[in-house]
From TrEMBL:
CDD domains listed in its UniProt record: USP_At3g01520-like
Annotated SUPFAM superfamilies: Adenine nucleotide alpha hydrolases-like
Descriptive protein name: UspA domain-containing protein
Disordered as annotated region, ranges: 1-31
PANTHER family given in the database record: OS01G0783500 PROTEIN, OS05G0501700 PROTEIN
One family name in Pfam for this protein: Usp
InterPro entries for this protein: PHOS32/34, Rossmann-like_a/b/a_fold, Universal_stress_UspA, UspA
Source organism, top-level taxon: Eukaryota
Biased composition (Pro residues): 17-27
The UspA domain, residue ranges: 35-188
Organism: Centaurea solstitialis
């Protein structure tokens, strides 16, 4: 008897959406994967670099990848990529809904741009977006709840923390290293002076510039279905 085809991971939807209150089904398209690798992304260039690094240096045949993004509910705009629109004081229900829809659309477009290296490498993946007010704790919760083998994340670029002083840089990755139940791989991304010196630093700066340009081009690609909780 011919077995029914399993849908690719990138098209899987949660219906009803999974959450700590509504756990996912026991059998999913990722069940047969040798390793389930999460890549925590905040939709920045730095997160995109972490995805590319994972494809080139960490992932192996048989792995399934989940791009994990926590969309903060405490903001309608600005946390990940700056203000998307003017501030609206005391918005109506319709205005607030439009702001949220625009924010979700922007999240979708950026998440799909980040997934392009996985598409090119033919690595099975899905995009998993969770809405919560606490970024660090929810990341650790999702890692434990979904049973990941490891999580990869960038060392900078997680939301507004990078803009509020150097003392908080890396606070999300540091928290996850201490509290996640699985190994956490932190990928350092830096195109600024003060890291390496000489030709290596110049090469890295050129590479980072090319990466940002590539990410902007990928924003024009068509969107892919994703899970939003």
């Amino acid at each position: 008897m011919k077995r029914p085809a399993v849908p690719p991971l990138s098209t899987v939807r949660a219906d009803p959406p999974s959450s700590p209150r509504y756990p996912p089904p026991v059998t999913t398209p990722t069940t047969g994967a040798q390793r389930r690798i999460a890549i925590a992304v905040d939709l920045s260039d730095e997160s995109g670099f972490a995805v590319q690094w994972a494809v080139q240096n960490y992932l192996r045949p048989g792995d399934a990848v989940i791009l994990l993004h926590i969309q903060l509910t405490s903001v309608l705009y600005g946390a990940d990529w700056g203000h998307a629109m003017d501030v609206v004081e005391n918005p109506s229900k319709e205005t607030r809904q439009k702001l949220e829809d625009d924010f979700d659309s922007l999240t979708s477009a950026k998440a799909n741009a980040l997934s392009e290296p996985l598409v090119e490498a033919n690595i099975p993946f899905k995009i998993h977006i969770v809405k919560d007010h606490d970024l660090k704790e929810r990341l650790c919760l999702e890692v434990e709840r979904l049973g990941f083998s490891a999580m990869i994340m960038g060392s900078r670029g997680f939301g507004a923390s990078k803009r509020k002083g150097k003392g908080r840089l890396g606070s999300v990755s540091d928290y996850c290293v201490r509290h996640c139940v699985c190994p956490v791989v932190v990928v350092r991304y830096s195109d600024e002076d003060g890291g390496d010196s000489g030709g290596d630093a110049s090469a890295k700066k050129v590479g980072a510039t090319r990466w940002r340009s590539a990410m902007r081009r990928r924003m024009r690609c068509s969107t892919m279905p994703m899970i939003v909780i």
